[in-house]
Design brief:
3 helices; Chitinase A, domain 3; 21% strand; alpha+beta; 160 residues; six-stranded mixed beta sheet; 2 domains
Length: 160
């Protein structure tokens, strides 16, 4: 999958998420302000709880809106074997057991999974442990993530 296709898929997924969350926030707001949520006594917190849900969903929708704007403005940059990894890098990694993983270094929406046939790509951000380890590295470098027994080492096999 090329990077332009990855960017388009990320934008499509974020657009769909924004649509769903916006509707959920509207529904939660309607529930919070509905007459049935008016407190019956001083211990009835149904309306307050519904307003917290509505606010949380509105906040998440705003985060997605920001991510969507960022990805729409993002320009995919070309990388070579000696080019240090930075935003828009598509990185193929291999662990010590030979298991492969492909990641796209994006500004946000970390953890988003993109599927293309048998290939899976995961968006990582520079703030994530893997993203921090990858920044500035080049092809054939080894990067370590985690500590102690949970530490994983990856070899950068390809950067595009």
């Amino acid at each position: 999958m090329n990077k332009e296709l990855i960017l388009n898929k990320i934008i499509a997924l974020l657009t769909e998420d924004l649509k769903i969350l916006t509707e959920a926030a509207r529904t939660a707001h309607a529930a919070a302000t509905h007459e049935e949520c008016l407190p019956d006594n001083k211990y009835d917190t149904t309306g307050l709880e519904a307003s917290y849900v509505a606010q949380g969903q509105a906040n998440r929708a705003q985060e997605i809106r920001h991510a969507l704007e960022t990805y729409k403005a993002l320009v995919a940059k070309p990388f070579g074997e000696g080019t240090p990894i930075r935003l828009t890098a598509l990185v193929s990694l291999e662990d010590v057991n030979g298991n492969g993983r492909k990641v796209f270094l994006g500004p946000n929406a970390g953890g988003l999974k993109l599927i293309d046939g048998d290939e899976e790509y995961i968006v990582v951000t520079p703030e994530s442990p893997l993203g921090k380890a990858l920044l500035g590295s080049v092809c054939d470098d080894e990067v370590c993530v985690g500590q102690g027994e949970g530490q994983k080492t990856f070899t950068i096999v390809d950067v595009s």
